[in-house]
Amino acid sequence: MEKKTAIRLAGNQTKLAEILGINQSAVAQWGNDVPLMRIYQLKTLRPKWFKNLETKSLPPSLLKT
What we know:
CATH architecture: Orthogonal Bundle
Helix content: 40-55%
Strand content: under 5%
Number of helices: 5
Distance between the termini: 17 Å
CATH class: Mainly Alpha
Largest sheet: none
Number of strands: 0
């Protein structure tokens, strides 16, 4: 998942950090993509975010429910 997509879904970068229980500065340090372990965390915390994403943009292990 692209970082900008996660930020848009959360509302802003600070809210995304709050959802994940991390500092906003940690999110700011990510590259273009959300780190894999944070994707796992978001899939648990916000499963609705993953329902309509293109399946090719996620690793196959994340698509199993």
